[in-house]
Amino acid sequence: QVQLVESGGGLVQAGGSLRLSCAASGFIVSINAMGWYRQAPGKQRELVATLTSGGDTNYADSVKGRFTISRDNAKNTVYLQMASLKPEDTAVYFCNADRINYYSDKYSSLTWGYNYWGQGTQVTVSS
Hints:
Blueprint: E1 3-7, E2 10-13, E3 18-25, E4 28-31, E5 34-39, E6 46-51, E7 57-59, E8 67-72, E9 77-82, E10 91-104, E11 109-117, E12 121-126
Parallel strand pairs: 2-12
Antiparallel strand pairs: 1-3, 3-9, 4-10, 5-6, 5-10, 6-7, 8-9, 10-11, 10-12
């Protein structure tokens, strides 16, 4: 009943910019932390950036100063503005929401759901 859908990935040259978006759908009341993770071929999924509902951010050292995470709570959407992209940023980027309060048709009540992931969006940076 709750889904995360990413958009905005693509192919860009080194030094370029991209903006990723992730929208949560459903009868959502609130979302705690939202964030972005990425997984390059042959590597484990890693944290890129997170943003709590209170505005606290956390960035991987590799993206500090280049990436900016933001969110629009009214739209249940989180963004990742990526600048000065490098070939090593090439990966599938996944959106995550750690805890969502939403209205459940199944239970006819508000309920909490945990650890939601989007389907991923490919970002490829050419040198």
